[in-house]
Design the sequence.
């Protein structure tokens, strides 16, 4: 079965000024490479978009809310309001039961983590693209936080692969 690409919160507020994730300059091309490879293989692509509230930078209709990549015909957009992209969304109806998933996006320690853990609980084999997810500096520097999440997800059962080796078929 061809893997489904899940792009989580690949939105302007995460990758473009004024406040992109610290690794935006390297994460953005890695995401682009994986997306291009998925499209070339005819893989299903799901763009998950966070709908912020209040004064969040990703409130629907604001520039920060917009997706970085155009959504091509046949691709899906799933809007969410929680870190788990499955919760309260139609995501589970868009990915076949047990289909392998390739996950990339933001933020490692929130939406990428929660969505990957839920996908594993639902029986999906998951590959996390190690150079195509990121977060902001917090109690730990962003790179350390992303690496810790990758290690946690690997322990939970996710496979880890760089954007250079991820394939769709």
Sequence:
């Amino acid at each position: 079965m061809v893997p489904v690409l899940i792009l989580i919160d690949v939105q302007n507020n995460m990758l473009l000024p004024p406040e992109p994730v610290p690794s935006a300059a390297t994460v953005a091309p890695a995401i682009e490479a994986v997306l291009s490879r998925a499209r070339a293989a005819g893989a299903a692509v799901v763009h998950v978009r966070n709908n912020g509230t209040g004064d969040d930078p990703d409130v629907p209709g604001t520039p920060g809310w917009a997706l970085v990549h155009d959504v091509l015909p046949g691709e899906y957009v799933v809007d969410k309001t929680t870190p788990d992209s499955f919760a309260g969304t139609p995501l589970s109806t868009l990915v076949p039961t047990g289909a392998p998933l390739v996950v990339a996006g933001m933020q490692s320690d929130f939406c990428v983590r929660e969505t990957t853990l839920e996908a594993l609980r639902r029986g999906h084999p998951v590959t996390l693209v190690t150079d195509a997810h990121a977060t902001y500096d917090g109690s730990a520097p962003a790179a350390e936080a992303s690496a810790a999440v990758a290690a946690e997800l690997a322990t939970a059962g996710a496979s880890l692969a760089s954007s250079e080796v991820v394939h769709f078929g």
